[in-house]
Amino acid sequence: MDEVLTALRKRWDASEPAGLATVVATWHSAPRQPGAAMLVAADGTVTGSVSGGCVEGDLYEVAGEVRDTGTPLLRRYGVSDDEAFAVGLTCGGILDVYVERVDTATYPELAEVTDAVAAGQPVAVCTVVADRCAGAALPVDRAGAATAVAAGRVGRRLVVHPAAGRTGTLGSARLDDAVTDDARGLLAAGRTATLAYGHDGERRGDDLAVFVAAYAPRPRMIVFGAIDFAAAVARAGSFLGYRVTVCDARPVFATRARFPEADEVVVDWPHRYLAGEADADRLDARTVVCVLTHDPKFDVPVLTVALRLPLAYVGAMGSRRTHDDRLARLREVGVTDDELARLASPIGLDIGARTPEETAVSVAAEIVSRRWHGTGTPLSATAGRIHH
To answer: XdhC- CoxI domain: from which residue to which, for each copy (predicted)?
Structure first.
């Protein structure tokens, strides 16, 4: 767990109230991203940071007041007036910070959350941070301006797990369902964000601002084969929120200059790299693998490893002829029919793709479809719920 969650759990276990300030939205060159937090304990101890020093002095006082009164605040810091340098951001960015009292009464789900995080299990915490219908407007664009949160749903919390299960409520079953769907999407991408809803979960509404803190690392996409199609797939993977690795055994092709969108470029034999990542426990059930090497001496060994791991997606590029030859070679080395059934080959959905960029869209669509159990059918030809 990070230091703020660890300190918060310690105070919570001791039944000591604390003030928690969390960045819930940013604009421009803000110094910290949503999810950054600062804890102010009853003894004055501070853990964490929300801006790297710009506004911590003011928030120290605010968090102490909220801890004592129990009345949450949604506070905005920027540089839009003459007092900005006193309590604002000199970098030109804007932060919205939600400040709340945390104790066993206001946050009964904390043990569930911290236990999941400590165990390496993804979990999302969804908190209503503004309720327009209760008379609490969102903060105005003015440095240091604060909005005392009125009654209503502010402070209500919903804890969402990735596959099934949730705890708490935001005040409406339909709202809970809508936020659960969106929170699982953010959790799958390892993203934290503030979302807007109507009071009954309408996605076009803006009555409620719900902050979704996703406690999960970004899922991994590993692309084998340093070819032009791999560069396009790496860009698509990064756009979808994956931490992208491109791996190839040929150092002349596997270079940072050729794959600027990738988080890392590795020179290694694909099967050896993948087996090493599995042994080091750096893969999980969200990991996707795209084999684009077009060469049996690379394809067969790495697919033999990949198809025996509990990964979200394993796809391989090639023609129908290449696919048939690949299946025969995999069977020869002992890959079972059940394992072969997990292989997406030829890779991607049939959208008529030709260029590397179009092919990357095809691959990305298939990955998303498998993640959320979509059919790949045009929505105009279906009925019922859009979100599965």
So the answer is: 12-78, 151-198
pLDDT of residue 32: 72
CB-CB neighbours of 113 under 10 Å: 22
Q: Give 346-375 pLDDT, tens digit per residue.
A: 999 999 999 999 999 999 999 999 988 888
Exposed, middle or buried, 104 (CB in 10 Å: 0-12/13-18/19+)? middle
Distance of alpha carbon 102 from alpha carbon 22, whole angstroms: 12
3-state secondary structure 88-156: CCCCCCEEEEEEEEECCCCCCCHHHHHHHHHCCCCEEEEEEEEEHHHCCCCCCCCCCCEEECCCCCCCC
How far apart, in whole angstroms, are the C-alpha atoms of residue 68 and residue 44? 12
- Residue 293 · residue 224 · CB < 8 Å: yes
User: Coil, helix or strand for 35?
Assistant: coil
Q: Answer yes or no: pTM beyond 0.85.
A: no
- Are 247 and 262 a contacting pair, CB within 8 Å? no
